[in-house]
Amino acid sequence: xxxxxxxxxxxxxxxxxxxxxxxxxxxxxxxDLIAPLFVREGAGVRDEIASMPGxxxxxxxxxxxxxxxxxDAGVAGVILFxxxxxxxxKASGAYAENGIVQQGLRALAKKVPGLxxxxxxxxCEYTDHGHCGVLRKEGRGGDAEVLNDESLPMLARTAVSLxxxxxxxxxxxxxxxxxxxxxxxxxxxxxxxxxxxxSYAAKxxxxxxxxxxxxxxxxxxxxxxxxxxxxxxxxxxxxxECDLDVEEGADMLMVxxxxxxxxxxxxxxxxxxxxLGAYHVSGEYAMTVAAAERGWLDRExxxxxxxxxxxxxGADFILTYFAREAAGYLNK
Length: 332
Ligand code: PBG
Hints:
single chain, 332 residues, alpha/beta, TIM Barrel, ten-stranded mixed β-sheet, two-stranded antiparallel ribbon, 12 strands, globular, binds ligand PBG
């Protein structure tokens, strides 16, 4: 008897676009995407960010225009970051009643109510030293140290202020221990018990945040963030971080960055039953844009492949600077 010709011929399903469409396992849609946006004071501002071509510093009025365009394209929502006029050691701009993100949230709530409003909760854009919490100049070992428990009330106050201004979701990105619980308690005390927390649960101390620190003016003046963000070499620790955040009351989890950490996205998705986001960060954006500008990558295909890969790894939604652009490709 001759050896039977292999019965399974995977290419049979690849030669025809209609069949490829039929058997495709993963989809990505504008409704899976959240656009990060940067808000500053003023009117009519639309200043391009040098390290992130195609991304802008917006004032509340131009933020509303951008929000409308995103909403019209079917993008799920936005996450706001603020560039305050003044920074100080107490990060007062983070929780000021008329803080810049608070203004942006109110404007969007009024003018584009159909767009989901997320607010990043962190202090680094508002502290004069650029760290995500309260800084002691000479901490353990002589290096500057970010104090954990001292930072929690400020983060909680910030989350309450943002929720009061109209954030539908608050997303702590500071990586202090215990911040989810502190924020949950503070929201509940203020009658904001229906505001969910999206925790940046597994946030790595990543070089891929470089362009963001330019965009948000939040680079630490001394030291770095390795004392509170995760070591890129650790995977099991991401599961432990998520476990803690779930216990503390996180409603959704996030892994950040995305593409270099797809193994973590998959592990977190398999381990926890909660909705999962992945943050396709500024450096991932910048390197794609730069390579495409040089003609080394096909921009549209690279963007869509990156996003579908993040979804395939297990992310339910993606925070990406490509949100508006990708929606344009997907809506064609
Ligand atoms: C604030 C924060 C950062 C990012 C999101 N929230 C910067 C950082 O941790 O240094 C990075 C986002 C990006 O790179 O796109 N802590």
